Amino acid sequence: MNRIDVHQHLIPPGYREALRRAGITEVGGRALPDWGVESALEVMDDLSTSNAVLSVSAPGTTFVDDGVRLAQAINDETAEILAPHRDRLGFFATVPLPDVDAAAAEAERALDLGADGVILLANSNGTYLGEDRQDRLWQVLDERSAVAFIHPAELPGPQVPGVAPWAADFLLDTTRAAYLLVRNGIRRDYPNIRFILSHAGGFVPYASHRMAVAITADAGRSPLDNLDDFASFYFDTALSASPATFPSLMAFAQPGHVLFGSDWPFAPATAGQYFAGNLDTDPNLTNPVRQAINRDNALRLFPRFGAAEPLAEPAAVARMRRQMKRSVFRAAARAISKRDL
Question: Of 121, 141, 217, 272, which is least packed with CB atoms within 10 Å of its CB?
Fold first, then answer.
């Protein structure tokens, strides 16, 4: 029993009551599930999970007028609920974005309270991570070498009938935030923040080359630098561990940057078992790679759960990465410099 789940949610009673008062009964097109700490531990046992870092999902604090007070209440209640299970459970603190100063202050308070990082919604009432005037928050997280878990929210626009937000829109939301964090230099200016992108990064691994070239044409930065910035994110496997996803994700992400995630309880336990089973049986993954995804990579972010061996990039992966950059981006860089794009 050794997995570390970096994408597991909780719904503290006080937060559930706040949602009820606001008339919110679903998130991303899925009904608000039941949650309890004992149920969480039972599901973890079923998935061979030893530790989990829990977080409050969308809509965060954006549905109330006093988001600061709600964020404080969420973090205080979460710390209290999880305290008896500190050896197995941690949490990402909720911060009241889009109020940047208040979010920075609550991040500091919650990290001092014992939070293992912070959860940041990709967009908060239409304001995306990576937009202007968010530097105070990035400064605080960078100074603390904090883990920042980026989770999608519903897109700031009308839903498309028949398309469940969690199935497609959430992936786009995560991708938009990652794009802006790279385009506007946040990844490069604040290198100590360890960003985790939910659901294998949305479309990031699959569309990374396209986005890197677009940022070069738009912002004038090297496509190779853009690609490196995208690859420097961490990526969890929640609802994403499959033979279709792993080839792109493993070819793109930096070594040690893929982490196990279940998305319970918004994803039912049966879904967690299905995707965990894909991870455990994929013939293209070696046992050491599986062990790294399941546990060792997360230990480097959350060392209080144990120790991991130093990470060394396999020579084949390093060679593939160099060849990919040369073959794909050399021509693109020349074309951009000549304004042919």
Answer: 217
